[in-house]
């Protein structure tokens, strides 16, 4: 899971990992192999790393039928021998995401938002990937449909042994699907831990504020909210020192001068804050 406010750089990071955007610095490792130095991602690696986009309305070609949208990757990568096999495979992917063959010859505008996103997932699955970036994959959907798509993604994860990078601004959504969660602010990872540890023992003031902003049913808990003051700074000109210091209620003098490193504060729990021990 990767969580943070709008403009924190989550989508950029997801696309950089897939090399859809070239990194200016840093390294990307896939299965222990550095892929940031490879000139061009080859077809085999591209098949293994897929993406489900945020907006199901604009991520599907409006003039292509569902059959062609899901089938184009299969054809490009020569994964089917003939039309009959192609249709059979597309039908099986539609079934996997809870849709039937009656959708094969429909256009995206004939589907609901949830169905469109299911087609996006089927398209990503069609190439037999190992890693999928789900970029705000449920944000544009109604809450009830969100739950269905999250359940579907969880089932597929188990069935195919998939790894997701699940990007969302919604901590509740990330919590439901993630094993490990990273919190991002102005392009920097502030905290990373197992989902349980992050939610139960969050240490970074930004994570604590984000968690406190989740609406609670209990009226007493509503009063414990930490409201972040000030605007998110311009990412092109981030503050010196700790990038969060302009909004942090715990900031000390050192925070204005020195950027904290991401350090392992306890097993598999990393925090970038001068006060974390
Ligand atoms: Fe706040 Fe300082 Fe920690 Fe940054 S380093 S989160 S400003 S206390």
Task: Report on this structure.
By secondary structure, the protein is α/β, with parallel strands linked by helices. Helices cover 36% and strands 15% of the residues. The protein is built from 11 helices and 10 strands. It has helices spanning 10-17, 43-48, 66-76, 83-96, 113-125, 143-160, 171-177, 195-200, 205-212, 219-222, 253-257; strands at residues 2-3, 29-30, 33-34, 49-52, 131-135, 163-168, 180-185, 188-194, 263-266, 269-271. Helix 3 (66-76) packs across helix 4, helix 4 packs across helix 5 (113-125) and helix 5 packs parallel to helix 6 (143-160). The longest helix is centred in the middle third of the chain and has 18 residues, at 143-160. The protein is globular and about 70 Å long. The model has no long low-confidence stretch (mean pLDDT 90).
List keywords for this structure.
277 residues; alpha/beta; eight-stranded mixed β-sheet; two-stranded antiparallel ribbon; globular; binds iron/sulfur cluster
Q: Which term fits the overall shape?
A: globular
The residue-averaged pLDDT reads 90
- Helical coverage, percent range: 25-40%
Task: State the low-pLDDT regions, or none.
Answer: none
Short description:
With 277 residues, this protein is an alpha/beta fold. It contains eleven helices and ten strands. The longest helix has 18 residues, at 143-160.
């Amino acid at each position: 899971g990767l969580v943070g406010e709008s403009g924190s750089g989550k989508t950029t990071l997801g696309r950089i990992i897939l090399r859809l955007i070239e990194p200016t610095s840093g390294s990307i490792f896939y299965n222990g192999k550095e892929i940031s130095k490879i000139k061009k991602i080859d077809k085999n690696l591209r098949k293994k790393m897929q993406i489900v986009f945020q907006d199901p309305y604009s991520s599907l070609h409006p003039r292509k039928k569902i059959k062609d949208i899901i089938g184009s990757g299969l054809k490009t990568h020569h994964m089917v021998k003939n039309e009959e096999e192609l249709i059979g495979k597309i039908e099986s992917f539609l079934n996997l995401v809870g849709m039937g063959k009656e959708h094969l010859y429909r256009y995206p505008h004939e589907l609901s938002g949830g169905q469109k996103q299911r087609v996006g997932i089927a398209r990503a699955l069609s190439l037999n990937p190992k890693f999928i970036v789900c970029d705000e994959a449920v944000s544009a959907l109604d809450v009830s449909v969100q739950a269905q798509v999250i359940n579907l993604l969880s089932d597929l994860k188990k069935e195919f042994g998939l790894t997701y990078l699940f990007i969302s601004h919604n901590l509740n959504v990330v919590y439901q699907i993630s094993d490990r969660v990273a919190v991002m602010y102005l392009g920097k990872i502030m905290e990373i831990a197992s989902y349980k540890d992050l939610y139960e023992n969050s240490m970074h003031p930004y994570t604590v504020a984000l968690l406190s902003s989740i609406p609670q049913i209990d009226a007493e808990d509503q009063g414990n909210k930490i409201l972040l003051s000030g605007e998110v700074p311009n990412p092109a000109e981030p503050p010196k020192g700790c990038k969060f210091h302009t909004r942090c209620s715990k900031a000390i003098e050192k925070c204005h001068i020195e950027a904290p490193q991401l350090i392992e504060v306890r097993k598999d729990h990393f925090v970038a804050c001068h006060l974390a021990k």
